Amino acid sequence: MTRTRDRSKRLQGVPAGLFWLAGPVLAGLVVASLLTGVADLDLDGRFSGEAVELLLVSRLPRTLAALLSGASLAVAGTIMQMLARNRFVEPTTAGTAECAALGLLLVTLLLPSSSLFIKMIVASASALAGTALFVTLIRRLPPTQPLMIPLTGIVFGSVVGSVVMFIAYETDLLQYAGVWMTGEFSGVVKGRYELLWGSGAALVIAYVFADRFTIAGMGKDVSVSLGLNYRQVLWIGLLIVSQITAFTVITVGMLPFVGLVVPNIVRRTMGDNTRQVLPLVALTGGALVLASDVIGRLIRYPYEIPAATIFGVAGTAIFLWLLFSRQAQRG
Amino acid sequence: MIEIDNVSFRHGVAPVLQDVTLLLPKGGLTALVGPNGAGKSTLFSLMARLLKLQSGEIRFDGMDVATTTSMELARKIAILRQDTHVTARLTVRDLIGFGRFPHHRGRPGPDDEEMIEKGLELFELSGLSERYIDELSGGQRQRALVAMAYVQDTDYLLLDEPLNNLDMHFARTLMKQLRYLADRYGKTIVVVLHDINYAAAYADRIVALKDGRLSAQGTPEEIMTADCLGALFDMEIVIETVRGRRIALHHAG
Ligand SMILES: Nc1ncnc2c1ncn2[C@@H]1O[C@H](COP(=O)(O)OP(=O)(O)O)[C@@H](O)[C@H]1O
Ligand SMILES: [Mg+2]
């Protein structure tokens, strides 16, 4: 018996082939990213020692940082959307990123000489606490009002964000706070982004738990009926999300909406089976953030626009288009 | 065997179940009937450990639901809740496949694939297998959820109002499939039904719940009397015998 699982039959709007172009597109972006910058990479002749050094110390780390942060934030969004059973939550619509920044600010203030490792621990612990608080808050919301959840999260995030800004203002750390909340990659050099490999590790763990996240996304009762330890899966998910968020905030700064836009683009054509979509979500997230970074480097050359800004504009436009084109289809 | 021993339950202060004691033998099809709010769904949730017992005990083949691990119970009991609402965008095949999770825990093998195929066929879903569940009619989705409980391949199957949303054709087909599962594989199936005539036609025994108490239990012949049903639903019900079957005329009176 042969069974074809031709998923392309079910596609709506976006041709499936587009996704499988992701590989070549990604390769193209990586090359573009390696070649784009103020310092000239002289490729006329052979690679000079200087050019190789520039590549290894600056361009390659920068490219990897964009890929890792994009991929992991997109996956964090996917997990959050599954666990909250709501398509509009992601680290910046649930207060996760703001809470990470708050933790980072407090540890910078109170223990200024602490190591990066300690800072990372504090930031992810506070991201975890904030997200857990958010999850408790939204339990009380009516499930019939899906937009209430991200709205609550945004309000919660804004309150925490304001506290961060206030403390930062009072203590002359405003500059830091700005850097944490606006992701950009111009400062990335070798030795200053490696924490992001922690996000890479979190991606692997997320993949291991993929089926459990999908089941949790079917609700507590279905989870329990299938023998799942629902609370445990919830905590593992929150832990992964807060780790990824904290790593990103510390190294390159937050990239809002990556976790919102990417999973929603992918799920439209590929559905919600986490194990199946996770690789594509990661790939798309990495590619879109890298593209934003490259565009940000080119648009006002030789000045740079933060990748978070470029992504914010382009991603929001894509998302709105998706939202409205679907409504047009249904209606 | 299902042993329900002195189970009482309150939602807040309101008593929902009061001293329910019930023994259901292994094998066969039991219909659980009773008016809205009688506590049927609550009893099911307690049986399937979705709600924590407040007092009393429930055992399946001697396994206490309060002390047995959830994973072990997942291979013993499958439940379809009345208001299951799956928001995840999954294909019918993937949804049904998750019913196998207690057996493979994330690494499906050929057995699991085979069982999924069987589930798709049994509930006439083969043609819909690659469709997303949010693109199905209510009845089709209901069948997919029943199939998901079926592939969990447990000795005990609890279905809360599975005929919801089903047309006459599929309602009858589903009842026949359940009958077949009980007869052929010796499954123990408990179904909450609203149409007493379905209960009488397909069940081996009927259990009636009213105001949180067990009000009657017996064979369809014993329950299908004007007195018994009249008292259960607080209305006058005429019983007629048509082609050797007792039929409750409850819809017009
Ligand atoms: N979550 C809940 N909170 C409070 N009361 C509830 C809850 N669920 C059910 N009830 C009440 O418990 C009683 C039994 O409900 P249920 O078990 O759903 O009855 P049935 O399934 O027989 O219609 C009803 O009076 C209902 O209002
Ligand atoms: Mg009910």
UniProtKB/TrEMBL annotation, chain B:
SUPFAM superfamilies: P-loop containing nucleoside triphosphate hydrolases
Domain of life: Bacteria
Membrane topology annotation: Peripheral membrane protein
Subcellular location: Cell membrane
Main location: membrane
ABC transporter domain span: 2-236
PROSITE patterns in UniProt: ABC_TRANSPORTER_1, ABC_TRANSPORTER_2
GO MF term list: ATP binding; ATP hydrolysis activity
Keywords: ATP-binding, Cell membrane, Ion transport, Iron, Iron transport, Membrane, Nucleotide-binding, Transport
Gene Ontology biological-process entries: iron ion transport
Gene Ontology cellular component terms for the protein in this record: plasma membrane
Family note: Belongs to the ABC transporter superfamily.
Protein name, entry field: ATP-binding cassette domain-containing protein
Native organism: Roseibium aggregatum
